[in-house]
Structure formats: C-alpha cells, structure tokens
Amino acid sequence: MANIRLVDLRHSYAAAPRNDSDYALKRMTIDWADGGAYALLGPSGCGKTTLLNIISGLVTPSEGKVLFDERDVTPLSPEQRNIAQVFQFPVIYDTMTVYDNLAFPLRNRGVPEPTVDMRVREIAAMLDLDAMLPKRASGLTADGKQKISLGRGLVRSDVNVIMFDEPLTVIDPHLKWILRSKLKELHQQVGATMIYVTHDQTEALTFADQVVVMHDGAIVQIGTPVDLFERPQHTFVGHFIGSPGMNLLPCTIENGVAHFAGIAIETRSRPKIPVGASKFEIGVRPEFVRFSDDGIPVRIAKVSDAGRFHIVETKHGETAINLLLAESSALPADEARIRLDPAHTQVYADGWAVT
Amino acid sequence: MSIELKSVVKRVGNETHIHETNLTLHEGGFNILLGTTLAGKTTLMQLMAGLEKPTEGKIFFDGRDVTNVSVQKRNVSMVYQQFINYPAMTVYDNIASPLRVGRVPAAQIRDRVHRVAEILKLTPMLERRPSQLSGGQQQRTALARALVKDADLVLLDEPLANLDYKLREELREELPRLFADRHCTVVYATTEPTEALLLGGHTATLHEGRVTQFGETAKVYRQPDNLRTAQVFSDPPINTAPVVKDRGQFVLSGDVRWPAEGRYAALPDGSYMLGIRPHHITPTPARNATEIDGRVLISEISGSETTIHFAVDDGTWVSLSHGVHPFGVGEQARLFIDTSHCFLFDRDERLVAA
Predict the structure, then answer these.
(1) Is A264 touching B (CB cutoff 8 A)?
(2) Which chain A residue is nearest to residue B165, measuring alpha carbons?
(3) Which residues from B are below 8 Å from A242, CB to CB?
(4) Predicted TM-score of the model (pTM)
(5) Which one of A16, B61, B108, B175 has the lowest number of neighbouring Cβ atoms within 10 Å?
(6) Phi, psi dihedrals of residue B329, rounded to the nearest 5°
(7) How far apart are the C-alpha atoms of B298 and A181, rounded to whole Å?
(8) What is the pLDDT along chain A (355 residues), one digit of tens a residue?
(9) Which residues are CB-neighbours of B61 under 8 A, at least 6 positions away?
(10) How would you label A69-92 residue by residue, b for 16+ Cβ within 10 Å and e otherwise?
(11) A226 to chain B: nearest residue by CA?
C-alpha cells in the first residue's frame, strides 16, 4: 500500500488550453496517507472521473505529477502502477466459477497456487461468498456479481491503491446498506488505501475518513464527514451535502453583524468581509433551525413527511427556509417564528465562508 | 380515471410473476408501487399499460373492461428509468411527437409544447438534441413527452433512479406539482421508501409478486398490516427479533425486558415477532427507553447522523440517530430502544400492536 500525492495537477482535454475554463480539472494538490479511506464526491461533470483516471493512469495530466510513496508514476501505464479497480457494473467472467473469478487477478500475476487458495478463501469469507465458491458466476444476481467484483478488487494484498467507481449504483437500497458496511469492515481488516468515487453523499460520507468535494473541476473542500456537515466552506458543499441542503438567506453586513430582512442574525463568528466581495448570504442547515417564540417571522409553506422527521418549508417573504421537525413534534400554526442556532450559522461572501 | 385490477395473475412459463392481485387506483395524488427489484412493479405497470396481458383476471378503466384493449388504444404515457428519447430529433420534436401521431392542429401543438417546456425548464434547450443534454434534462424531456399528451394514465417506472442525488431531490420536489392540476391517474414505481414517503399519495408495497398492503402512504408506513410490509417500507431495514410476552413484560434474548404498557398491555402472553425501525434505537437515553447492550460491528457517521450496527447474542441490530456518536469496532455499547414505537406481529406475521 502507498501514500498517494497529487502535486500541482491540472488537466485539459483541449489541445491548446487558453484560460481556466478550458481545464476540466483546475490546479490541485492532494496528499493521501497510506491506508486511508477517501471519497471523491460531486455531481456529474465535476471532474471526479477525470481525477480518478489520472490516478489510475488512463489519463496523463496536462500538468503536475502523481506520486506513489514519493515515486513519480505520472508516465506509467495502469498495469505498471499496480492498482485495483472496481467499476459501476460487475466486471467478471460469467463462465468461470466464483472461485476462479476471485483467483484470476492473482493467477494473472503468477502468484503460487497455495497462496492463491489462501487469499481467495480469506476474501470469500469476508464477503460471505464461501458457499458460492464452486458455483458459476453466470447464475448470480446483480449484487452477487458486484460482490465478486469487490472481491476481485480486494484479493491482491500488494496493490498501491484500490479504487471504486460508483460501485453500488446497480444495487438495491436495502442491499446497499449491507455492502457498504461490508466495504467499511474490509477497509479496517485489510488496511489498504481506498479511493471511492460517487455522486451519492450518503455513500461518500459513510465510507470515507476524508471526503474531497468537487465542483466545476475544482476542489471546494476536503474534510471529514463532520467538517463537511457542520462547517461547509462553500455554499456548494452546504447545498450538495445534506438532504435537503443548507438554507441560504440573502443578507447585508452592518457594523460587522449579518442582517436578514432587517433582522440581526447571530452567527458563529463576526464575519471579516473580504475586499471587493459583492454577494452576502447566511448559511444554516435545516437541522439547525427550530421553531421558537421569538426570531424570524415565517409562514409555513409546505410540510413533507420523510418518516423519521418532517421537512417543513417556511417562507419569510420570498426566501424559503427549511427546517426538520422530529416525527413526534407538533407543528405550529401557519404563522410562526424560527431561530437559527448561532454555532451552526455562517456568513458566506461570494459563496465562500468568511470567519 | 380509476383503474381496477380484478383477480389479476401473470404467469410466464412455470413462473408466477404476479400472484392474484386486486387493486384499485384513483386519480389525484401519486399511486406508488414500492418494492425491491423483481418484486413485480414493472410487470404490474406493463399490465396496466396493456403491454402485457394478464394470464387470469381482468383490468377495468372507469369500469370499462380493457383487458383485451391494446396499448395504443388505452391513452397511456410511460417514463422509464433509462432516458428514452428520439436521438435524431430536437427536444421540441421529441416533446411534440405524441401529438403528431394524434393529428392535433399545428398551432395547438406549438402552444402545448411551449407550455410543457416552460414547466419543465426546457425552453432554452428546445432546439438541441438529446445527446447535448445532461441526464436530468434528458429525463425532463421524457417527462415532457408524457405530460404533453394528456394521457388518462401516466406510468413512471423509477424515473429518477439514474439521476444524480441532488437532481433526484429537485425533480422529486417538482413531480407532484407537475401532475397536481391534471386529470390523470399517476402510478410511480420506486425501490426507495423515503422517496415513497416524500411523494405521498397512496402506496402499494410489493414483495415477490404480491401486493402486501395498499393505502395512504403515511398510514402504510406507520401501520403496516404485516411484517413483509414493514420490511419493504423501511430504510435502513427494520430490526426484527423474536420476543416473548410474559406476565406483563416483554422479554428479548440477552435478557432485555420492558413492561407491556398502554396499547401493548392487552396482548395475551406468548411469542411474537418484534419490529423496530433503526431510528427508534439510539445511543442517548430517551423517555420510555429500554437499555440494550451489544458489541459494535460497524459504525458509520454521515455528518448529521450515526448508524451503528451491533450484535446482541446471535442477532444483529441497527441503530440510526441524530448527531455524531463515534464507536469503535468491537466496542461494547449501550443503546436505548424506544419501546413505545414497537411493532408486534403474531405467528402469521400479522400486526397485532403498533
């Protein structure tokens, strides 16, 4: 396993890129420790697949270097990089048995048969595939096949990194829970560096120790799941992570205090306004808004039952402010007031958190 | 329009895809078919559309027997999980296509296409081809085609499944609004319990080709008639464990016990199956809570919520709670079951108390 460093990376698919918008991947530097669990999270087209392909060697970056344990692997092919990959759809040999499928990556590298047998059985046990080993892969369900793909990704103990590209897309929700916790457990057992690419916030946040959030080819924040949830550094992170996403209230700054609709709003810290900033917003997640006797007057526009809680959409003028209400809590009358938890209320200038 | 399935059975070769089903769906609000892959959602929709014929039983539209009426004559629209559009046509022509088949005057076609495009935020894309659109825009185009036609029956088969998380959230918000003032019956298939809840309306839970319950969505969620329905309608999966009621107490394996109070008090002594959703087991003490000690198998922190998988004797439990509660693998943990939210099922897996 290896420590992975991406140094001053930048990539454009254009032959002669002129300005920043020609770059699918804006300049970035990332340092990933050996044995960590990382996620690349973002919507379609954010650059996460380009980044993954640069790490695996399918794409050579226009600028910058990829280092595995300080060794420059930028010019090396995927085969020479010694990595394992698991894709969105199962990549297995239908005509082979489950055993032979799992053994394939090892036999391919000339690993002696007794070692192959030991590793295959170890991985099969971790994935509850023991009973399946002699069966042909063709008869398995989609999730069964994907489990084998995972197994093939995990079976070699000498890889530098294991990469997962949306590996649970084809899996039903009730099985996603099981496979996700399995993957997490496997990470703790094998201690490999793992990179998980997804557009699904739940998968990214539950899998990774550290999540890289990408937007328009750039990294907007790198942090633990708790950081991203409690301290989003950009309004995009606030919006993209969390369901519903963070509320954004247009505001003005008067004497260092944020005001929404003429009401002073207490925030985490007194915002230091960067020179030249033009757009100010107050960001607060629905989890940190509650009904109260005083505070911002609102009317209740919509209530959605999400089972364990209700999503209440309130409005002050034209500004919508969502809040979450526990399943058993009572809903106030149409006219109500709300308070924002100051410790989780943040001012954003042109999209970026100011503290 | 109402649609009624009367003793409908669908067999293919030796396999029964739909067991005898009786179901009546009405206009107004979504009719949701909730179940895992292969539960029978798509087959039911194909039967409603007339793409498949039932092996037994009949199908009625507003009391009219349509069992042998072809799909072309049923006035239905379908939207699938895959974004299906005509690749060689512009978005405008894609949306207009169902009207051109039906000999609608040109001026009216233009009007209707523009109105639907406006609702679905496709106006700036009308001259583009589907390949030049994002996934979300492609699916909006398919939805626009279904909307423009004024069908009596609209069948939406997991229309959001292939979209990015946030796009899904956005379209899920819009969908009920799109159909709110239309006179059509909407049927929506999904594998996701939360999606069913947020769309509201009525829900039929499906398991292995059988409708296990049908009713108002929130009611089916909170009062599942049977264990299957509770399992289908719970994400993360509902916890289940055998429980014994003995002289005013419930007793679980691991010597976890609590008094049988309130609506649970009248149940006769004996063996039951307990069902409890993960969010009613938390790592923080709560009112009416019963302690349960287990070994942590795995814990996941999603930023706002913590999921803890833990083992008690030979059973596995899942807890889902607000906030950040770090636990190490293998750690002994004390959790708290809110026993006032238990479901109890009898030997036949029928609900006896909720």
Answers:
(1) no
(2) A200
(3) 303-304
(4) 0.88
(5) A16
(6) -65, 135
(7) 7
(8) 689 999 999 999 988 888 888 899 999 999 999 999 999 999 888 999 899 999 999 999 999 999 999 999 999 999 899 999 998 888 889 999 999 999 999 999 899 999 999 999 999 988 888 999 999 998 888 788 988 999 999 898 888 899 999 898 877 777 787 788 778 888 888 888 999 999 988 889 888 999 999 999 999 999 999 999 999 999 999 999 988 999 999 999 998 899 999 999 999 988 888 888 899 999 999 999 999 999 999 999 999 999 999 999 999 999 999 999 988 888 888 889 999 999 999 999 999 999 8
(9) B1, B2, B3, B74, B152, B153
(10) eeeebeeeeeeebbbbbbebebeb
(11) B303
| Structure ipTM | 0.86
For B226, the token pair is 């049977």
Which residue's structure tokens are 């170890």? A122
* Strand ranges for A137-269 from DSSP E: 162-165, 194-198, 210-215, 218-223, 247-250, 252-254, 257-260, 263-265
Q: For testing the chain B interface, which of A243, A290, A328, A331 should be mutated: the one with the most B CBs within 10 Å?
A: A243
A180, closest residue in chain B (CA to CA)? B300
The closest of A234, A218, A197 to A27, measured between CA atoms, is A218
Which of B165, B195, B237 minimizes the C-alpha distance to B34? B195
Which DSSP string corresponds to B90-136?
-HHHHHHHHHHHTT--HHHHHHHHHHHHHHTT-GGGTTS-GGGS-HH
Distance from CA of B85 to the nearest CA of A (A): 20
